[in-house]
Amino acid sequence: MGDDPVAQRLLEAVHRFRRAGLHKMAIDGWNNSEIKMLMCIQWGCVQDERGSSVSSLSSMMEVTSPTITQLIKSLERGGLVTRYNDQEDRRVVRVKLTEKGEAVTRLAKEDLARRFKNLYEHLGAEKSEQLASLLEQVYDYLDASMSEKHEINGESGDDGR
After folding, report:
1. Which of 68, 84, 109, 115 is 20 to 30 A from 21, comparing alpha carbons?
2. Membrane spanning segments where (predicted)?
């Protein structure tokens, strides 16, 4: 950061967000990764009624298929998901939430909504709007920086990450 105290303050603020764990959830004994996986499975089922494929989940979660498979096995043992081969292409493994999985996912979404509602109430409407606007600008800056980096390195940058 050099001698720039404002840049240092920004860095420290970002690090504090990670430590605060706002992005982490644990519901009914299920950890953050498992909860994220349930949400991705649910979203994938909205996109394709046959269920989420392991490869699409891998892409959404930005982890390898073996990692996804281990998470799915854990969720399957807990009765939160069912796993089966696609009827049209037997090589494709699909995953759907069970009723129990739907219930845990609903609880997680309610918890996340409550957290952000509380943040909104804490900040008030005006500061919440300012924060949302600033975070959008930060995202746009980081996204443009990554695109520029990919171009400089000769990468396509179209892998969706």
Report:
1. 68
2. none
Q: Give the integer Cα–Cα distance in Å for 87 and 49.
A: 13
- Write the pLDDT tens digit of every residue in 30-61: 988 999 999 999 999 998 889 999 999 999 99
DSSP-derived pairing of the beta strands 93-97 and 81-85:
antiparallel
Task: In whole angstroms, give the CA distance from residue 11 to residue 1.
Answer: 8
Report which DSSP code applies to 97.
E
Could you count the other beta carbons within 10 Å of the beta carbon of residue 6? 8
Domain 5-123 has what CATH class?
mainly alpha
- Lowest-confidence region among 13-22, 57-66, 120-129: 13-22
Residue spans of the domains in the chain: they are 5-123
